[in-house]
Automatic annotation (TrEMBL):
<keyword id="KW-0808">Transferase</keyword>
<dbReference type="GO" id="GO:0006633">
    <property type="term" value="P:fatty acid biosynthetic process"/>
</dbReference>
<dbReference type="InterPro" id="IPR014043">
    <property type="entry name" value="Acyl_transferase_dom"/>
</dbReference>
<dbReference type="InterPro" id="IPR016036">
    <property type="entry name" value="Malonyl_transacylase_ACP-bd"/>
</dbReference>
<dbReference type="GO" id="GO:0004314">
    <property type="term" value="F:[acyl-carrier-protein] S-malonyltransferase activity"/>
</dbReference>
<dbReference type="InterPro" id="IPR001227">
    <property type="entry name" value="Ac_transferase_dom_sf"/>
</dbReference>
<dbReference type="InterPro" id="IPR050858">
    <property type="entry name" value="Mal-CoA-ACP_Trans/PKS_FabD"/>
</dbReference>
<dbReference type="Pfam" id="PF00698">
    <property type="entry name" value="Acyl_transf_1"/>
</dbReference>
<feature type="domain" description="Malonyl-CoA:ACP transacylase (MAT)">
    <location>
        <begin position="1"/>
        <end position="286"/>
    </location>
</feature>
<protein>
    <recommendedName>
        <fullName>[acyl-carrier-protein] S-malonyltransferase</fullName>
        <ecNumber>2.3.1.39</ecNumber>
    </recommendedName>
</protein>
<dbReference type="InterPro" id="IPR016035">
    <property type="entry name" value="Acyl_Trfase/lysoPLipase"/>
</dbReference>
<keyword id="KW-0012">Acyltransferase</keyword>
<dbReference type="GO" id="GO:0005829">
    <property type="term" value="C:cytosol"/>
</dbReference>
Length: 295
């Protein structure tokens, strides 16, 4: 499992292969800062998370560890595609840099995402519909679990929705550390340009099952994966559906790549029998030991 933006933190690149960091600079001109200030910038966030995850994939590959299924949440689809052998490291870096710049330039300020915990999607949808304002648009976006839904759009509009959600009994309703309105119709223009960029990249058939964000389905079709890489920004992420499908494949062990452990927490609540490894919370050697023991 490959998370997207939201759990980035200062110092998370400390142990990443310097060659990967240098590659980012060579290919994009971006010097990764790995600081609190740097992680206010979407380009810094996205490229840093990408190479952090690719570095961890590389370490597991060196031990001949290959996934049976991969699932990426939002930005995480690129590391998932890399882990599945679909996209080369250089191409992933260049495309993610373009993705981040397109997103940031489309909505440089005043937009973002929020999360609501404790209400059903239909309840959140009703709140968004009742309080929709063209000047401050908000859309229901990701379905992380049955009772965890995100909203995307204008910050003023999101704050209104969050306040109404709290009044309606939500356990939690807060802004996320995501500076763009991802996974909403507001990102269609960005998705179109990203799809054009990906059309020039050579993608290979995956060596494992790929769970797609845009519809939650499992696939081995490289065309469907290409569509997901380019267009998931304008669709909700159906993470809850993706994890249900992973269960159908009789998954016994999951690995959540850094940063954070949100995906593992969601999976434990849904499928407590699946053994979990969270790379953000343990040394790589410990993770390798557990994989050798469990997988």
């Amino acid at each position: 499992m490959f998370p997207g933006q939201g759990s980035q933190r200062r110092g998370m690149l400390a142990t990443v292969d310097p060659n990967l960091k240098n590659k980012v600079t060579e290919l994009t001109g971006v010097n990764l800062e790995d600081t609190d200030q740097g992680y206010l910038d979407s380009v810094q966030i996205q490229l840093s998370i990408l190479i952090l995850q690719m570095d961890q994939v590389n370490q597991l590959r060196a031990e001949n560890k290959q996934p049976d299924l991969v699932a990426g949440h939002s930005l995480g689809v690129f590391a998932a595609a890399y882990a599945a052998g679909v996209i080369r490291a250089d191409d992933a870096i260049k495309v993610v840099a373009q993705r981040a710049n397109l997103m940031q330039n489309a909505y440089p300020d005043g937009y973002g995402m929020g999360v609501i915990v404790g209400l059903l999607r239909k309840e959140v949808t009703q709140i968004v519909t009742d309080h929709f304002d063209e000047a401050h648009p908000v859309y229901v976006s990701n379905q992380n679990s049955q009772l965890q839904v995100t909203v995307s759009g204008n910050i003023v509009g999101i704050q209104t929705v969050l306040e109404k959600a709290k009044a309606q009994g939500a356990q939690k309703a807060k802004l996320l550390r995501v500076p763009v309105p991802s996974h909403s119709p507001l990102m269609r223009g960005v998705a179109k340009k990203l799809t054009e960029a990906l059309s020039k990249v050579t993608l290979k058939a995956p060596n494992c099952i790929y769970l797609a964000d845009y519809n939650g389905h499992a696939t081995r079709d490289v065309k469907k994966i290409a569509y997901d890489l380019g267009n998931n920004l304008s669709y909700p992420v159906y993470w809850d559906v993706m994890m249900a499908i992973a269960q159908e494949y009789l998954t016994t062990v999951s690995v959540e790549f850094s940063p954070g452990h949100v995906m593992t927490n969601l999976l434990k609540a849904k499928a407590p029998d699946i053994k979990t490894i969270t790379l953000a919370d343990m040394a790589m050697d410990d993770a390798k030991f557990l994989l050798n023991k469990w997988a």
